[in-house]
Amino acid sequence: MFPADLRRPIMVLVPAAELGLRLGLIGTAVKFGRDWPALPATVVRTGTALFFLVAVGALNEMRQRRPDAGCGCFGELSGTPIGLRTIARPGLPCASAVATLGLPPLRMPSSSAEAELWLASSQWRRYAGQVSAGSPSDVWREGCWRFVVYPGYARGRPVDIVFAVYLQSRRPAVRAAVLDADTDEVLGPTGTRESAVL
Fold first, then answer.
1. Concatenated DSSP letters for 52-101?
2. What are phi and psi of 127, to 5 degrees?
3. How far apart are CA 27 and CA 40, in angstroms?
């Protein structure tokens, strides 16, 4: 698609741009301290979406003009004609980048106990929207269980969300309970009364 004298510089420029966008996405994904680079994150995400949108357009045009030619992604090794699967490969990162526009930064775990919950638990995902602090208010161990308590809110009332992590397993079992912060009454996931316990 390019004149012969531009092919080599473009073959160097495209992977360099892709690497730069990847590093930019990583560098602007996480909130560092109080300041989050909102504008740089938006610029990098928009640039990523445009980069892959151009790739989708170029592949589609190449498919229409020269249906027997390969995509050229890996030089002479790319001899297979361009199909919908080839076009979908840059289409997916394009759609993913568009979907991240305007989203807040990722929040990294603030302690090893929180990291354990994130890695091991669907329970954490279930209650994460109710947690109101970045670090636990209490952590203790009883026998083979580690207990981690986070303050939170459920239906406008303050609650304590207690996670119990079984420590003697490669895939630790995690249990959770929501307690009324004032009465220690066990509540359901949405802040209603429930008879179940850990």
1. HHHHHHHHHHHHHH-TTSB--TTGGG--SBP-HHHHHHHHHHHHHHHHHT
2. -105, -5
3. 9
What's the rounded Cα separation, in Å, for the pair 6 and 41?
Answer: 31
- The rounded distance, in Å, linking the Cα atoms of 98 and 80 is 29
Which residue stretches of the chain are H helix?
4-27, 38-65, 84-100, 112-120, 122-127
166-178 residue pLDDT tens: 887 667 788 888 9
The whole-model pTM stands at 0.52
* Distance (Å, whole) CA 109 – CA 131: 13
Per the document, the length of the chain is 198
Q: How far apart are CA 74 and CA 11, in angstroms?
A: 10
At a CB cut-off of 8 Å and minimum separation 6, what does 118 contact?
109, 124
pLDDT tens, 56-94? 988 888 888 877 776 666 555 566 778 888 888 889 989
